Each structure stands twice: as structure tokens, then as C-alpha cells.
Amino acid sequence: MDIGRCGRPLVVSITPPVRKGRKWRPKQGISGEFMKTRNKKRILGFTIIELMIVVGIVAILLAIAYPSYIKYVRKGNRGEAQQLLMNWAINQEIWRSNNVAYATTAQLTAPTGDKYTFDTVGTPDATTYILEATATGDQVNDVSRDGATSCATLRLNQNGVKTPAVCWE
């Protein structure tokens, strides 16, 4: 019989030791089940197929949403031009109440906008004027809700007639 360090006989037990409070489990590397999982590397992340599927879905959503977004931006720019034309018309009426004729662009400066240029059609006289906003850049592709009428040129006269009417809705 072998003697251990402490002078006691070395006892080899077949049954695992009993520990208080928790169940006995073999340490990693002792059991064959744990050995199999220990040698495998843990794989984290996404596969290239998963990433390509996500890219494809995003591309489809973008292809659907982008034209609607551009249409919305053009309509917003058109609304800004309409507001500037109406403010200019108010200023024309104020000018006319103090003078014998409506103002030219030399007398009353035209508004300025990012996507439109503003001018009068012809020369304003004592009874008439036509104010015009002409689209620039990508805004020239702006169309009305029905898709048939171009909204690249907006006009407003002294009677409040707005042309093309479908673009002012």
C-alpha cells in the first residue's frame, strides 16, 4: 500500500467525491463529451450569404422608396416657390396702392429661391402683371399629381389666377 504525503495510506476511490451544495461534474478534458466541444472553435458573425440577402433586401426597399422621396422633395420645393410668388403678389398690390402702376423687377426686387428663378412676364402696367417662377436643376422634372402636367413653370397674375392649376393644388 502506498503512503501519501501526510503519512496516511493512499486510497483510490472509484466513486466520485461528494461535494456539499452542488452536483459533481467532471472537469473539462476528463469526459469524452467535453473533449469534443473543447477542440471546436466557436464561430461568430454572419456568413456572406446572409450579408448578400440583407444587401438585396435593402436594395429593393431603396428602389421602391427613392422615387417617392424625390417626388416629395420636388413637391416641397414647388410649395416654397408658390409661397414666394404669393408673397411677391402681395408686395405688388402694396406697391400698386401707393403708385399708379404695378412694379417692375427694377422697382421691386424678385424673390430668390434655391430651385426656382423668379421674373415677370412682360412689363407690369397699371392694371396687369404676371409673375413667373421657372424651375432650375432637377426641379424641372417636377410634375403634377396626375403625372401629365409639368410644374416647371408656375405663374400668378393680378387676379390671383394660378397656372397650371393642377400644380397649385
How would the blueprint of this fold be written?
Blueprint: H1 32-39, H2 48-98, E1 116-120, E2 130-135, E3 153-157, E4 162-163
Antiparallel strand pairs: 1-2, 2-3, 3-4
What does this structure look like?
By secondary structure, the chain is of the alpha+beta class. The chain is 35% helix and 11% strand. It is built from two helices and four strands. The chain has a four-stranded antiparallel β-sheet, covered by helices on one side.
Structure keywords:
169 residues; alpha+beta; 4 strands
Short description:
The protein has 169 residues and is α+β, with helices and mostly antiparallel strands. The chain has helices spanning 32-39, 48-98, and strands at residues 116-120, 130-135, 153-157, 162-163. Strands 1-2-3-4 form a four-stranded antiparallel beta sheet, with helices on one face.
- Which class do the helix and strand fractions yield? alpha+beta
Q: Encode the helix/strand succession as letters.
A: HHEEEE
Q: Count the helices. How many?
A: 2
Q: For this entry, what is the oligomeric state of its chains?
A: single chain
Largest sheet: 4 strands, antiparallel
